[in-house]
Each structure stands twice: as structure tokens, then as C-alpha cells.
Amino acid sequence: MYTVIGTPKSRALRVIWALEELEQEYEVRPANPQSEEAFLHNPLGKIPSLLIDDTVLTDSVAILTWLADRHGSLTHPAGSLARAQQDAATQFAVCEIDAALWTKAKHAFVLPQDLRVEAVKKTAAAEFARAMEQLEARLGDKPFISGEILTVPDIIISHCAGWALSAKMELPKGPVGDYLRRLRKRPAMQRSLAKAAALS
Question: The GST C-terminal domain covers which part of the protein (predicted)?
């Protein structure tokens, strides 16, 4: 059984969702960033971590990729062109979407007050909006970002969309809005949200 370290109101939700999609047994030990529990498993005090026997995996993207590869789902085969396109979509999700949201969050409440720059939040919002335009082009008429099946970057993108809504950032309508709603309605995602609510 897997053990997820981290509060479900964080990137740990991505790991919980993946485990639900993969129909794996797991438990969640809620822990905030920089908490004693977080430092116990990651010297930087970051979450999530995933415990597998005596091994600890850190970073949500690395955890998702490993889980997908291990269980042969949520991914295209390693070495295939489809996997390369999937990995490119993952990098886009992390570098363009997640990064814009994290930048805004840092200057809204994460950094000490004297290091926050109000204007950066406006820049981050503009970068997020541009990433959403790029997402529409990348998505095209495909049901998922890298083809016909749900893969790791879809989970990251959907999680980021929920994060954006909580930060009062506007999500696109049209094809991207439809795509995000489909992801949110998946049974495994609904189970993940219910678990997150129960642990809050």
C-alpha cells in the first residue's frame, strides 16, 4: 500500500487522483509544507512525498510519472513518439501553467511580506491566460492533451485549473473549458475531492 504525505489541498491531490485512477490502495498522512512530517520525508520540507516500503519519492510530477510507468496506465509507452509528446505536454503544464500560478501564490501569501511584489501577481495572471490560449492550440480536437487516453499531464492541468479557480483566476470557455469539465467529472477525480474534503 502507498502512503501519501501532504495535505490534499496541495499538489498531493494529483497523487491521490492518480492512485484513484490506478485503483491502488493508499493512505494519506495530511501534512503542510515545512511541517515536521514534511521535513521527515523531504529535506526541503516540501509536499507531497510518496512512501513505498523504505523508499521515499518526492515531487508530484516524478511521483505521477513513476506510478504511471509502474502500473502501465496514465501514460504512453516509454520510447514511443506518443510518450515524447506526453512528456512535452507535462513540461508545458509545469513550466507555463503551474509556474504562473505558483508565482502568483508566492507574491500573494507565501513569501514574507517584505519580499512580495504586487505587480508580479498581474504578470503571473497574464502568463496564465497566455498558457490557457496555448493549451487550446495544443489540445486541438483531441479528448486529452496527448491523445486518446488520460495521461499524467491531464492530471496536472486539471489540478492547476482548480488551483486557478481558488485564486480567482478566470478559466477559458469553449474547447478548453469543456476539456477541464470532463476531467473534473471523472469518477476518480470526484473520489479524490471527496477524500480531500473528508481530510480537511
Answer: 79-200
In this prediction the pTM is: 0.96
Provide the angle, in degrees to the nearest 10, between the axes of the packed helices 152-166 and 12-21.
Answer: 140
Distance of alpha carbon 161 from alpha carbon 144, whole angstroms: 15
What domains appear along the chain, each with residue ranges and CATH number? 2-74+188-199 (3.40.30.10), 81-186 (1.20.1050.10)
- Residue 1 in grid coordinates: 500500500
Q: Could you read off the pLDDT of 67-124 as tens digits, one per residue?
A: 999 999 999 999 999 999 999 999 999 999 999 999 999 999 999 999 999 999 999 9
Position 199 pLDDT exceeds 90:
no
Mapping DSSP onto H, E and C, the string for the chain reads CEEEECCCCCCHHHHHHHHHHCCCCEEEECCCCCCHHHHHHCCCCCCCEEEECCEEEECHHHHHHHHHHHHCCCCCCCCCHHHHHHHHHHHHHHHHHHHHHHHHHHHHHHCCHHHCCHHHHHHHHHHHHHHHHHHHHHHCCCCECCECCCCHHHHHHHHHHHHHHHCCCCCCCHHHHHHHHHHHHCHHHHHHHHHHHHHC
